[in-house]
User: Fold Flagellar biosynthetic protein FlhB from Zhenpiania hominis.
Amino acid sequence: MAADSKTEKATPKKRRDERKEGHIFFSKDIVSVVFIFGAFYSLKLLLPGMYQSTGSFMVHFVEMSGTQESLPSGMLQSIAGEFAKTCVSCLLPILLICMGLSIVATGAQTRFLFSRKSVAPKLSRLNPIKGIKNLFSLRNLVELLKSMLKIAILLYIMYGMLKDDFIAVVRTMDMDIRLSAVYMLNLIMDMIIDISLVFAVIAFFDYLYQRWEYERSIKMSKQELKEEYKQLEGNPEIKGKIKDIQRQRARSRMMQAVPQADVIIKNPTHFAVALKYKIDQDNAPLVLAKGQDHLALRIIEIGEAHGVTVVENKPLARSLYASTEINQEIPSEYYGAVAEILVYVYKLNKKDGASNEKTIK
Assistant:
């Protein structure tokens, strides 16, 4: 099927299926930027401790070197072990922080999806013709342009900063080693900040592009929509859910109509039928709502809250419930019994301070 025929947005089912296959939109640049910012701020936070650790090691090493012309092999191993320990204590916290932030950035985009299908070997990936097509695809072209843009920006920022501070960098050779290290570190930090901010802007637009590309790739044709609808329509589970939703909506509309009723006929707690009758509009009383057990109690509760008269008539309530449907007129055999109740209700409503509930036996 031609790609240009897929003009319809993907359905929720299509999105779920794509997700199961591991096909989701994901921006690697977002993760890279989070990693860079995490490394920068964790380095800035931990720098005093790192400076103290490395300084102590260097002082200890210089002292040992100054007192002996040649170091024994055992001492060299000790120094190497201490050096490794110092490096690990300095770098491990930064690596852990960056890894944690990268996992969060990845999980925020993928909702921590792990799909075996996405990493499983597929023969289609070995197809050379398909590989050549993918090589010249729009996605790969965008990735190439993005990489070239990053390199150009990186070189431009480095050139600009070194151009402005070239003389100062050269003069650091004559400075105290500590002052020289501090100056170079500040210069590198400023460079990282500028690069990170530019890369953050690129990552933002990359995220928007990846989302657009993903939505475009999962679009469906009208024929696919029809086929999916047929599949869902034949699924018993989906059918059941649709019927449940329809029942809930119908029940909600029914409850909203209860306040418009003229009378509610009940069988104390088991049945309730709400009727409406306008002499100049209706041929016969109309059933607005009916219910059994807890639904009957709910109808009565709503009716009483809106001033609808509730009348108890056990046999009539049961018969009306069994023989009527919502928004339909009552059967003709109940005209007489219902007419008596309506006449009673109309008279009752004319009396000031009348009770809201009466019982007719």
Observations:
- Residues 227 and 233 are 10 Å apart (CA to CA).
- Residues 352-361 have pLDDT under 50 and may be disordered.
